[in-house]
Amino acid sequence: MNAPPDLCAELAELALDAARLGAARAAELRAGPLDVTTKSTATDLVTNADREVERLVVGHLRARRPGDGVIGEEGSTTSPDAEVVWVIDPIDGTTNYVYDFPGWATSVAVRTATGTLLAGAVVDPLHGDEYVAARGQGARRNGRRLALPQPPPLERALVATGFGYDSDRRAQQVAVLGGIIREVRDIRRMGAASVDLCSVAAGRVDGYYELGLAEWDLAAGTLIAIESGARVEEIDGGPPRPSGRVVAAHPELWPQLAELLRSAGF
Ligand code: IPD
Ligand code: CA
Fold it and tell me: Which residues are found with C-beta within 5 Å of the ion, ligand 2?
C-alpha cells in the first residue's frame, strides 16, 4: 500500500487523539473502584478499565475510519488483514496502573497489511508525556521534535528491559540480565514496553531490550523510537516481531548492545 506523507500525518493526529482519549478515561477510572482479574498467569492483570478504554479507543477510530482493521489486546480484533490496521494497547503497564505506579500508557499505532508502521502515539498521563510519530516525519514529545543524542560507550549505557508473566520465561530473562549488568551503567525496569521504547526516543535510557512482547506492546513505541533516530530491530535483524527479541538503541550503540546480549544468551 502506498502511504503518502499527508496520510501518515493525518493518521498520526488520529492516533494521538485516540490515545489521549483512552489515557484520560483510564486516569478517571483509576480514581474509582477497579475490578482486577488475571489473564495468562496469576501475575498477568487485567481490569475493567483495560476493557472500557479499548472499547472507547476502538469506537473513536471506527467512527472516523470504518474500513480499517483493528487489533486490540483486550479482544476488539476485527479485519486484522485489512489494508490499514490499528494496533491498540488500551493500558500498557497494567501492573503499574493497578498499583498507581507512574509509567502506564495508552498506545495506538497504525500499520499496513504487510506491517509497515504508518503512525503511532503513546500517552503516559502520570508523567505528562504525549509521544507521536508519523512515518518519515520524525517523532515528537509534547510537541517538541525528538532527536537522539550521541550515545555513551556501552559501559556507561543505562539499559531498560522488562519481564513477561510466565515464571520460566522470567527465570530466563533474569539469567540474561545477570550476564549484562556488570557491563553497563545500570538497568531500569519501568513496567510498560511502549514507555520504554519512548524513553529510548527521549534519551531517558540509552537502550532497551525485551523478549516475548505482543504486537500491541511494540507497535507505536517502535515507530516513535525509529523516528527519533534509534535502531529498533530483532536481535538477528529485521523489524520487531511479536514474541521476538527486540533491541532498541542509537545506531552506534546498537551493535555493541546486541553483541553483549547475544553473549548473555538473549
Ligand atoms: C506488559 C508491559 C511490560 C512488559 C510485559 C508486557 P501489559 O504489557 O509492557 O513492561 O514487560 O512483557 O506484557 O500487560 O501491561 O499491557
Ligand atoms: Ca495492556
Answer: 73, 89, 91-92
